[in-house]
Amino acid sequence: MTRYDEIRIENLVVFAHHGVYPEETRLGQKFLVSVTMFTVTRRAGRTDELSASTNYGEVSQFITSWMQENTCKLIEAVAERLAEALLGRYSLLAGVELEVKKPWAPVGLLLDTVSVKIERFWHTAYIALGSNLGDKKAYLDGAVQALRKTVGCQVEKVSSYLETEPYGGVEQDNFLNACLRLRTLLTPQELLDELHRIEQEAHRERLVHWGPRTLDLDLLLYDDEVFETDTLIVPHVEMHLRDFVLIPMAELAPNLRHPILQKTMTELVRELNREG
């Protein structure tokens, strides 16, 4: 994992209206918010320019406003949504560690504080897109726009669209394929769920394996992670065998290495071409 510099704000006092009980949301109470912002301070340190860094004063004001303008029942939700808001607003941040303390927690016992601490980072994912029914380009364009509108996702780059012959031996029309690079706060499973939602909105039907479809979205890579669950395998098990994946990937990230094969996208394209 990349090592980052840290900018810290400790125990910012905010009076806000979060809580399960009606009196908490009606009367409000004191919260303490601490945040560690993971970033790179090198340019700010060398130039001595505030514009090269994340202004901790502005961040403190933003946290205060967000805490006062929003209402959550659980401090878990406060921490999650505030972390997402910070990472979405401040572009120089790679991640945050956020702790929300509740000094006056209504538990009927003597205690100092109850708190929730979380750590959230941006991740890089690569998504394959394909369509061979209806207006193929419109389906791919729609998927890109849907991901741009998905909370916790930022589309960074989209490859050229590539027309390819169908894969898997099923008689059908040619495909239009592409790949995109996504910056996301979602976990792999959450991202997969969003991809399935976007497919369903495009009226995707899973009737025939490798059959025709309005929209097909596959999670190819997630950072450099390697893992397998009942519903998801990363890296995608067949990405290194598919030219309609490797060619767009080589365009997006020619020197990116497959985390298992340890070969770049360009090298994988060359190998596939040699094998015919």
Structure description:
By secondary structure, the chain is of the alpha+beta class. It folds into two domains: 117 residues, 2-Layer Sandwich (GTP Cyclohydrolase I, domain 2), CATH 3.30.1130.10; 153 residues, Alpha-Beta Plaits, CATH 3.30.70.560. The protein is built from eight helices and eleven strands. Strands 5, 6, 7, 8 and 9 form a five-stranded antiparallel β-sheet that branches. It has a four-stranded antiparallel β-sheet with strand order 1-2-3-4. Strands 10-11 form a two-stranded antiparallel ribbon. β10 and β11 form a beta hairpin. α7 runs antiparallel to α8. The radius of gyration is 23 Å and the shape is elongated.
Feature tags:
Alpha-Beta Plaits; four-stranded antiparallel sheet; 8 helices; 11 strands; 2 domains; 276 residues; five-stranded antiparallel sheet; elongated; GTP Cyclohydrolase I, domain 2; alpha+beta
Short description:
The chain has 276 residues and is of the alpha+beta class. The chain has helices at 22-27, 42-47, 56-69, 75-89, 136-149, 188-201, 243-252, 265-275, and strands spanning 5-16, 29-39, 95-102, 114-121, 123-131, 153-158, 162-164, 175-184, 216-222, 227-228, 233-234. The protein folds into 2 domains: 5-121, GTP cyclohydrolase I, C-terminal domain/NADPH-dependent 7-cyano-7-deazaguanine reductase, N-terminal domain (GTP Cyclohydrolase I, domain 2, 2-Layer Sandwich); 123-275, 2-Layer Sandwich (Alpha-Beta Plaits).
